[in-house]
Amino acid sequence: MLDVTNLAVSYGAIAALEGISLRVEAGAIVTLIGGNGAGKTTTLRALSGLLRPTRGRIDFAGQDITGLPPHRIVGRGLCHVPEGRMVFANLTVAENLEMGAYLRRDRAAIAESRDRVFALFPRLGERLAQSAGTLSGGEQQMLAIGRALMSAPKFLMLDEPSLGIAPRLVTTLFEKIVEINRTQGIAILLVEQNAHLALEVASYAYVLETGRVALEGPSRDLRDHPLLKAAYLGG
Amino acid sequence: MAEFLQQTVNGLSLGAIYALIALGYTMVYGVLRFINFAHADVFMAGAFLGYFLARLVPAESFGGGLAVMAGTMVGCALLGILIERLAYRPLRRGPTLNVLITAIGVSLFLEYAGQLGFGAEPRTFPALFPQRDFNLGGLSISSNQLLVIGVAVALLVALQAIVHRTRIGTAMRALSLNPVAAQLMGINTDVVISFTFGLGSALAGAGGILYAMNYPSIDPLMGVMPGLKAFVAAVLGGIGNIRGAALGGLILGLAETFVAGSPWSTYKDAIVFGILIVILLFRPAGLLGKPAVEKV
User: Fold this and answer.
1) Looking at the domain assignment, is residue B146 inside a domain?
2) Bigger pLDDT: A12 or A99?
3) Which domain range does residue B161 map to?
4) In this complex, is the C-beta atom of B184 within 8 Å of any C-beta atom belonging to chain A?
5) Any alpha helices (H) in B215-292, and if so which ranges?
6) CATH number of the domain enclosing B105
7) What is the DSSP letter of B87?
8) pTM of structure
9) Which of A24, A49, A111, B248 has the most crowded Cβ, counting Cβ within 10 A?
10) Strand, helix or coil at A163?
11) Distance, CA of A37 to chain centre
12) Which CATH architecture has domain A2-232?
């Protein structure tokens, strides 16, 4: 479904990604792990069109999407939930969800998506008229994911969904992520600092180090990999 | 008492015009975080467009006046969109300071192109609408004043509806709150920015006509002072805040009118700008501005 070949991105003269290749099959959960500055967020930002690659090629659903602007990429069904949630703080929960469906016209289908989001995150349904900025961190993350689902994506990219969320909520959130994948068949590319958790839900993993893929493989193989154990799993 | 009411009506009608101009400053600031100094000259262009369009319709007729107003608003919207497209968009990725300096350049360009094209001598703005003076117990209100207030209120209500009830209005607010997230929603930011310039410029165009109806002498530099005051109004209300801009405009118009009718009338402008300094000392974010307030 997503095929990235030799992708490179630079910030001015500084190379952030030095040619990475990765693949995500339809319906799969794949994780991208690595330390700070490894290039995980940069990868997602390049895939969603926020950053222009200096080199390489991105194919999505059989078509070349390299260099398309973000709104075109969302239109193709690839949706990015950015790090730090980025909900529209002064808009209500309802308006945030409405913005998620910005490119869709079919009202009945939008209403159906909304119901599905409420079934997944009942909290959002209770707080429709509330400003998104007044929600708790966990609720904001639910809103950010719910808002992305409103675009009826085929593919979801989640950047650090566990960041800044109460630890007891993290497990629930990851259960929801798996549920989205299982019940709606949406493929997921998950960027996560918490490598334990990421390897538990993903079937395949890529480990980034300073802009390169240092290691890749099925999650169950990587869980016991000595390099990964030393670096991210605390021995 | 009669004089107080009289000055209030005068002040409201001046303030309504400042409010219309201030909205353009504040909306553009909301989505792009820079002050469009050329906005005052779009206001001037509105007055001139109205001046020429007025030749095409019967004088002093209600329908003709409204047609001129509508035509001017459309023309100014196009002008605003064109300015953004040609002068500001190519600089979007650079530092804001570049755009700010360019805006000053566009402003000077419009002013002096205006002098070149229309001459520097003031022209008399024609009577667009039928005029009548109403006398209510010592209170003299002209139909033009009522029209100014009426049109301004109608436009403010329409703007509020567009910003809060329509898809593109919500997209405008989303863009001003978080441009990155707005793009990730599939919002085409270029379209929303053009729309914002069009909307703000249409209001400035309406403001230009309303101003010229009350002060019927127009020249290519006529936008400078009202533009500056409307900018002050936008800052006073809290830059980026739509209701703040409207409130700031009214306060400024009232303050200016009351001072002008007092023994200190010579210091009219000094006092108006003094108010700005005092308010900014105590409320740096403006009257309705809060650190995380709605920014559009």
Assistant:
1) yes
2) A99
3) 2-282
4) yes
5) 224-237, 242-260, 268-282
6) 1.10.3470
7) I
8) 0.91
9) B248
10) coil
11) 17
12) 3-Layer(aba) Sandwich (3.40)
What's the mean pLDDT in B7-30?
A: 94
Within a domain: B248: yes
Asked, for residue B87, whether it belongs to a domain, the answer is yes
Domain boundary assignment for chain A: 2-232
A99 touches chain B (CB under 8 A): yes
- What's the domain count of chain B? 1
pLDDT value for A232? 67
Check CB contact of A98 with chain B, cutoff 8 Å. yes
Give A 51-80 residues with CB within 8 A of chain B: 69-71, 74-75, 79-80
pLDDT in tens, A111-139: 999 999 999 999 999 999 999 999 999 99
Closest CA to A124 of A102, A101, A147, A105: A147
Residues of A in contact with B170 (CB under 8 A): 91, 95, 98-99
Nearest to B286 by CA among B26, B104, B31: B26
- Measuring CA to CA, which residue among B279, B7, B33, B280 is closest to residue B179? B33
Q: Which of A50, A83, A99, A158 to probe by mutation at the B interface, max B CB count within 10 Å? A: A99
Q: What is the pLDDT of residues B171-221, one digit of tens each?
A: 999 999 999 999 999 999 999 999 999 999 999 999 999 999 999 999 999
Q: Is residue B288 part of a domain?
A: no
